[in-house]
Amino acid sequence: MATERRPRILVVEDDKQVRDLLVTYFTSQEGYEVIAAANGPEAIQCCRDSETLPHLVLLDITLSYAEGAMDGYDVCRSLRSDPGTAYIPIIFLTERDERVDKIAGLELGADDYIAKPFDLDELTLRVKRALRTSYLLQEVGERLGEVSEKEEQLRTIREIGGLLAQAPDMAHLPQALIHRVMELVGGQASSVLLVDKKTGQLVFQMSLDWQGQEIRDKLEGLTVPPGRGIAGQAVQRKEPMIVPDVRESPYFYPVIDELTGFKTNSVLAVPMLYEDEVVGVIEVINKCDGAPFTEEDARLVEAIVSFAAIAVQNALYLEQLEEALVDLARERVSRIAIGNLALVNDLATTFVHRLNNVMGTIPVAVQELRRLVDAKDRRIARYLECVERDVRRTLEMAEDLRRPLRSQEPEELSLNPLLEEAMTQIIIPDNITVNKHLADDLPTFIAVPMHIREVFYNLFNNAMEAMPEGGDLTIRSRLIEWEGVKCIEVDVADIGQGIPPETLSRLFTLFFTTKKEKGLGLGLWWCKTYLQTIGGDLVVRSKVGQGSTFTVRLPCAS
Question: Domain 1-147 maps to which CATH number in 3.40.50.80, 3.30.70.270, 3.40.630.10, 3.40.50.2300?
Answer without folding.
Answer: 3.40.50.2300
